[in-house]
């Protein structure tokens, strides 16, 4: 009987102590403010990556990407797309997210237009299928004067045009980034 009573007592103590220990330890990661793993020396950077065994410093944090996207659009033929202008570390580029559910290969032309008349254009062949994909222009340093280089993404716009790959192929969808901005970081 004494053994039973001791077992029940230990079980009650564990049931009371476990939630209390978890509450005082805090979350596993506080995004750079510490946390259980940091206080135990298991993590030493703000992103939550661990220290490397060879003693090397963890990789630096990636720069933030500013994004300005137009609305998600779709055509009756089965093309869906959303076009965005992105900026990161002084570079600007355009990206379109698409889905080609037409059952036929298509061509997309993505154009990035910036201040002082700068235009970058790229052609992307789209395979037939319902899988989502992306097409993007090269990352460019802003052109022009120092005043033009200091402008934000609102000075840039992008347009993606989706068509049948034929000389006289019909335009199926045009998606742009210049609608009401949706800004993400």
Strand and helix layout:
Blueprint: H1 2-25, H2 36-39, E1 66-69, E2 73-74, E3 79-88, E4 91-100, E5 106-113, E6 119-126, E7 132-136, H3 146-149, E8 157-163, E9 171-176, E10 182-184
Antiparallel strand pairs: 1-3, 1-10, 2-3, 3-4, 4-7, 5-6, 5-8, 8-9
Give keywords.
4-stranded antiparallel β-sheet, 185 residues, 3 helices, alpha+beta, single chain, elongated
Walk me through this protein's architecture.
The protein is of the alpha+beta class. Helix content is 17%, strand content 34%. The protein contains three helices and ten strands; from the N terminus they run ααβββββββαβββ. It has helices spanning 2-25, 36-39, 146-149, and strands spanning 66-69, 73-74, 79-88, 91-100, 106-113, 119-126, 132-136, 157-163, 171-176, 182-184. Strands 1, 2, 3, 4, 7 and 10 form a six-stranded antiparallel sheet that branches. A four-stranded antiparallel sheet has the order 6-5-8-9, with no helix packed on it. A hairpin with a 5-residue loop joins β5 and β6.
Shape: elongated
Largest sheet: 6 strands, antiparallel
The portion of residues assigned to helices is 10-25%
Question: SSE order in H/E notation?
Answer: HHEEEEEEEHEEE
Distance between termini? 63 Å
The helix/strand class is alpha+beta
Q: What portion of residues belong to β-strands?
A: 25-35%
Tally of helical segments: 3
Low-confidence parts, pLDDT < 50 over ≥5 residues? 42-50, 145-150, 181-185
Number of strands: 10
- Average pLDDT across residues? 76
- Give me the Rg, rounded: 26 Å
């Amino acid at each position: 009987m004494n053994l039973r009573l001791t077992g029940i007592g230990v079980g009650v103590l564990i049931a009371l102590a476990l939630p209390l220990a978890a509450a005082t330890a805090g979350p596993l990661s506080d995004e750079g403010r510490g946390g259980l793993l940091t206080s135990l020396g298991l993590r030493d950077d703000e992103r939550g990556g661990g220290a490397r065994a060879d003693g090397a410093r963890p990789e630096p944090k990636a720069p933030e990407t500013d994004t300005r996207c137009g609305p998600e659009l779709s055509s009756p033929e089965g093309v869906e797309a959303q076009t965005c202008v992105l900026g990161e570390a002084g570079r600007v580029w355009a990206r379109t997210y698409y889905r080609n559910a037409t059952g036929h290969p298509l061509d997309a032309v993505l154009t990035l237009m910036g201040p002082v008349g700068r235009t970058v254009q790229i052609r992307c062949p789209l395979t037939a299928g319902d899988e989502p994909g992306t097409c993007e222009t090269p990352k460019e340093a802003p052109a022009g004067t120092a005043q033009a280089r200091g402008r934000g993404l609102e000075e840039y716009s992008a347009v993606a045009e989706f068509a049948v790959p034929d000389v006289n192929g019909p335009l199926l969808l045009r998606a742009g980034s210049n609608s009401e901005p949706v800004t993400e970081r």
